[in-house]
Amino acid sequence: MTLASEYELSCGLPPGPDFADLAVLAEELGYARVWIFDSAPLWEDPFAHLALAAARTTRVGLATAVLIPTQRSVMAMASGIATVARLSAGRFRACFGTGYTARMAIGQPAMPLDAMIDYVASLRGLLAGETVVLDGRPARMLHWPGMAAARPVGVPLWLSVLGPRGNRRAPEVADGTIGPPHPTLPTATMVSGTVLDAGESPDSARVREAIGPWRVIPWHTSYAVGGAAAVDALPGGEQWRMALEALAPEAERHLLTFEGHVTHLAERDRPLLEHIDTRTMVGDPASIGRALGRLAATGFSEIMYQPSGPDVARELRAFAAAAAGQGG
Fold first, then answer.
1. What is the CATH code for 8-180?
2. CA quadruple 86, 149, 96, 299: dihedral positive or negative?
3. Per-residue buried b or exposed e for 21-44, using 16+ beta carbons within 10 Å of the residue's own CB
4. At CB < 8 A and 24+ separation, what contacts does 240-245 make?
5. What pLDDT does 2 receive?
6. What 3-state DSSP class applies to 271?
7. How high is the mean pLDDT in each 10-residue block of the chain (328 residues)?
8. Which of 69, 223, 233, 256 is the most buried (most CB within 10 A)?
9. CATH 3.20.20.30 region(s) of the chain?
10. Sequential DSSP letters for 201-238
């Protein structure tokens, strides 16, 4: 059973101790796919958790949102993808991004778009069983028959591309995208939010705790990209910045900027809960169902729900029920 006829409803989760348990729950609830995050400074290895989830599920798709090319050599990535493809029996999709947050968390800029596309092109060649040039030398997957999935390894490769140039170049190497609706490729979009309990206010403490890890990102990103002036322009931004800057010398503050990223709230984040958006994708089951339908109508083939807060299982159950009801 799938949750919606006009689009696929999937979910995105970080690689951590409960990932496989939540993947099992997502399969039971009818989610089409479970996407796993990838950021070596922030979370555990996604391939290990995908392997565990593949062994404990039979129907639900598995995907990455998103793999960061600079964290693995092309050959290591090809071997990891081939492993999960074999374990999941064709349920795996690999999506790549430039590592915006993952790299800023260690003080590095996102990798150039052209470099990401070149990387994925080489990866596609390796998975097809071709010989490609890596670091100036011919390279090929040399796995002996029976030691890995036979080439070609049929894994769809997607890109996370948010700008017009990325969208234009995506068809060169990608089977789909995460980002704005693409004119020729299937596109997924990412949403955060929560379904209200009966009679619950969107401004309740539970709502703020549930959506807070995603909704405080603008403060984190503003500071990382624009510095003090940018974050101070946001409500509560100056107080947030001063609390962070008191904890580390200037050269190490980037190590704290994304602390708890999309999963937990640092103490300095909590005052920001008074300023977050508590209306977007927050509502009763009927309104959530209608909101999902409107998103699908704009051209998205898949909507990736990203729960957070202290009770992710509750969020998954409530969102699945809202989507199944389709707004009433």
1. 3.20.20.30
2. negative
3. ebbebbbebbbbbbbbbbbbebbe
4. 240/268, 240/269, 240/271, 240/272, 243/267, 243/268, 244/268
5. 44
6. helix
7. 70 98 98 98 98 98 98 98 97 97 96 98 98 98 96 98 96 98 98 98 98 98 98 98 98 98 98 98 97 96 98 98 77
8. 223
9. 8-180
10. -TTSHHHHHHHHHHHTHHHHHHHHHHHHHHHHTSTTHH
Measured distance CA(269)–CA(260) in Å, rounded: 10
Question: Three-class SS of residue 168?
Answer: helix
Q: 1: exposed, middle or buried (C-beta count within 10 Å: 0-12, 13-18, 19+)?
A: exposed
| Bridge-based pairing state of the strands 137-139 and 132-134 | antiparallel
Q: Are 122 and 134 in contact (CB under 8 A)?
A: yes
CB 4, CB 323: distance < 8 Å = yes
pTM for the whole thing? 0.96
> Which tokens is 141 given?
């997957």
CB atoms within 10 A of CB 71: 17
Strand partners, 24: none
Question: Is 63 in contact with 93 (CB distance < 8 Å)?
Answer: yes
Which residue reads 């995908």 in tokens? 50
Respond yes or no on whether the N-terminal peptide bond of residue 225 is cis (omega within 30° of 0): no
Cβ atoms within 10 Å, residue 90: 10
